[in-house]
Amino acid sequence: MTESRGGPPVSRTRVLLADDEPLMRAGVRAILGTAPDIEVVAEAADGRETVDQALRHRPDVCLLDIRMPRLDGLGVAAELARALPATAVVMLTTFSEDEYIAGSLGSGAAGFLLKSGDPRELIAGVRAVAEGGSCLSPSVARRVISHLGGGQLGRGAAARARVAELTGREREVLGLVGAGLSNAEIAQRLFLVEGTVKAHVSAILARLGFRNRVQAAILAYEAGLVPAS
């Protein structure tokens, strides 16, 4: 995060925008430019350049197209998960096939947004992942939840067995992660300090062997931990 100078401090989320289409980058930059708390600090036109720019600028969020020259978005996400774990990766693409969704979440992405979505959805998604949350386009979220709901009872049993090794508080936090809450929102809900929530989330991911909150959220759904809204 950065702060403005010459006036009241304004926390800004620093974003790296990666897409091989100049017009698409210009459009996304224009959308993000309407949010005073978001700043595009660099752009890239291919996967290798994206990794180089990320290592140079260390952005809070990296918006990636899936299909890019030299190294695709899935490869970039995997490299950034290893080299810059503090940088949240969001896939921004026209492709919503199941294999792309699964590949994105498996590679360490914290979100999956469609270019055809509402511009407000893009801004909200960037803010969510910057705060430690996750984001999925509504149509993608419906497909993920539908897939989970249509799974065998064995999936639920296996998920419940996995979360059984967590403490009661960790299961409570995991359920709220599954509901899409950020660390700050979870802290407010559970009357905890935000740093404590962050520590719980890190412990949950490490114990379950997950790279990001989206994977944890899916397990929370499977295990029946997500509270009713």
UniProtKB/TrEMBL annotation:
What InterPro entries does this protein's entry cite? CheY-like_superfamily, NreC/VraR/RcsB-like_REC, Sig_transdc_resp-reg_C-effctor, Sig_transdc_resp-reg_receiver, Tscrpt_reg_LuxR_C, WalR-like
In which domain of life is the source organism classified? Bacteria
Q: Name one GO molecular function term.
A: DNA binding
The entry's keywords: DNA-binding, Phosphoprotein, Transcription, Transcription regulation
Q: Name one GO biological process term.
A: phosphorelay signal transduction system
Q: What SMART domains would the database entry show?
A: HTH_LUXR, REC
Residue list for modification 4-aspartylphosphate: D65
Q: Where is the Response regulatory domain?
A: 14-130
- Tell me where in this chain the HTH luxR-type domain is found: 159-224
PANTHER family attached here? Answer: TRANSCRIPTIONAL REGULATORY PROTEIN NARL-RELATED, TWO-COMPONENT RESPONSE REGULATOR
Q: What name does this protein carry?
A: DNA-binding response regulator
